[in-house]
Amino acid sequence: MALRRFIALSALFLAGCAAPQLSVPKGAIASTAGPRELLDPNARLTVFEFFSAHCPCQGAHDARMIALAEKYRASGVSLVVVDSEVGATPERDQTEATRRHYPFPIVIDAGGRVARALDAEFATYVVLVDSGGHVLFSGGFDSDHRDLNDDATPYLEHAIEDALANRPQRREEARVLGCALQLN
Amino acid sequence: MVPSTTMSRRLSSFTDSLLQSLLALFVVFALLTQTSPARAQACCAGTGAVTPGRLALHEFALVGVQLKGGLMYGSFDQLGNYHALSQGSSEQNYEQDLFASLRLTRHAQVAGLVPFVETHRTVPGLAQTGGGIGDVNLNGRYDFTFAGASRFVPGIGLLAGLTLPTGRPPESPNAGPLAAGATGIGALQGNVALALEQSYGPWLINLTGALAHRSARTVTSAEASVRSQLAPQWTVLAALAFVFRDERALALSASYATEGDSKLDGQRVPDSGHRLTTLTLGGLWPMSDRLRLQGSVFWNPPIDGSSLSQPALIGASVTAVFSWL
């Protein structure tokens, strides 16, 4: 599974980011990343987080996502939020990003190709990739569903910490409790 | 004056129809407990308003209880004509269902339901209350695909179930003079169903078709024993659900169940078939990740031709579901 993801992601990288044909919101979000920026070559680690505008679990995790992105930005971790769902439009996602106070862009994945390449089926599913295109971790953002608990296991944060410390991942995959994505 | 045997036979037939009606509702419930959550949200919308006991994708197991009450307000004759209840007659039905579901794999889940049924029935000059455990149901569901996973391919689920004759059949001497103590149909029933569902944003559309086969059974009365078999029953269910941002959901569904004439000792009994149309409005209110409340009102509309040889009921249910993630 991890190998397949690595190959898929590597193919995506090697294709110069044109393969997924991402349609980046234009003018809607000033800092919106383009296709090349989606892979963030300047970042030590890139996190793809799959987004659902309707999912209550997504909303429940917004604050944690924002906090994590801000915590690790200086360490070279880039968070890319990907909307692969039917009905995603720049206008709607701009509204969503504003409403949720996202400091990162929401990139619309036309055709759901990024989601399919990374086996994304659920909202709040994350994939952690290093600068070489290796998938280090994929799965749930944390062990919480909608009700947030202080004792939740922060899967993504653990994965980032392990990667930044250059130590083996304590887990390469984790269960996802987010909503089923309605893919393009 | 109606001879007691004739009256008993009428009541037995009537009770049988009522139980058929309840069974149809039960089958629909059994199907619904296995159909998808509104909007097919793996989290969140949970087992939607359309689907009381189905496990959401992120759920490992659940237990629940459903309290249901129904009031008979009329009936449909053998031609499908609706008639209001005659003066002095009444009927109230209550049911408490305990159910549980367990996920076997990502695509497969099994469930069981134990109903407890009570009936209060009156006719001029006579009243009876009875009840007990009903017909236990075991069922399973396998989802080949999930709603929303593809824009073009809907969620496809195959369902199969077995209803055991654990209840008291209408002809039982313990069912009482008005057969209010009847809690089952007395036959083993197997059913299969195909469920298609697709989500569009907050909307979910579900279409389910089911076929139920009832085993033959021996019915013994004071006079004689006969071999009785109900005809196969077809049920079609269509549902539309909407999930709000906070996961509350509303669903409207319509079901139509039909079966041909039954057989006695291998001979078809003319005009013994049934049809039943049921409209249901359901709602879901998630209390937490693990606890959700659901409610519904159901109604057999008093429209000539919409049902056949069935009582017309109106009722409501409240369901509480606790799940493990």
Beta-strand portion of chain B reads over 45%
The tally of structural domains of chain A comes to 1
- The helix/strand series of chain B, from N terminus to C terminus, equals HEEEEEEEEEEEEEEEEEE
As residue ranges, the low-confidence spans of chain A are 6-36
Q: What oligomeric state best describes the polypeptide chains here?
A: heterodimer
Shape of chain A: globular
What do the pLDDT scores of chain B average to?
A: 84
CATH architecture of chain A: 3-Layer(aba) Sandwich
Cα distance, first to last residue of chain A? 23 Å
Into how many domains do the coordinates of chain B divide?
Answer: 1
Number of helices of chain A: 6
What is the β-strand count of chain A? Answer: 5
Share of residues in helices of chain A:
25-40%
The CATH architecture of chain B: Beta Barrel
Structure description:
The complex is a heterodimer of chains A (184) and B (325). Chain A is an alpha/beta fold and 184 residues long. Chain A has one domain: Glutaredoxin, CATH 3.40.30.10. Chain A is built from six helices and five strands. In chain A, helix 4 (90-100) links the parallel strand 2 and strand 3 (106-108). In chain A, 48% of the residues are buried. With 325 residues, chain B is mainly β. Chain B has a single domain (4-324), classed as Beta Barrel (Porin), CATH 2.40.160.40. In chain B, 9% of the residues lie in helices and 53% in strands. Chain B has one helix at 4-32, and strands at 61-76, 82-84, 90-103, 108-123, 126-133, 137-145, 155-163, 189-200, 203-214, 217-220, 225-229, 233-243, 249-259, 263-264, 267-268, 274-286, 291-299, 310-324. In chain B, the strands form two sheets. Chain B has a twelve-stranded antiparallel barrel. The longest helix of chain B has 29 residues, at 4-32. Chains A and B meet through helix 3 of A and loops of B.
